[in-house]
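User: Please predict the structure of the protein below. I'd like the answer in structure-token form so I can feed it into my own downstream comparison script.

Assistant: Understood. Taking the following sequence of 69 residues as input:
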Amino acid sequence: MRQLMALPFLPAAHIRETFAALRDRANTPQLDSLVTYMDRQWFQHVLFNPENWSIFRRSVRTNNDVEGK
């Protein structure tokens, strides 16, 4: 599950192939349900595609100095 949550940190060009590899490794009904949901909501959706939600090499945006860089 942690690897699925880390997908936005990859370059957009690598997200789909990495997701496919992780989908093939889903070995419980709960993981299978999660992967199915992610595929439907985040990969097949018209507005939300990996190019829009990849944060690879984006600058940190905060106005809270405690968060730092």
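That's the full token string. The two ends are 26 Å apart (CA to CA).
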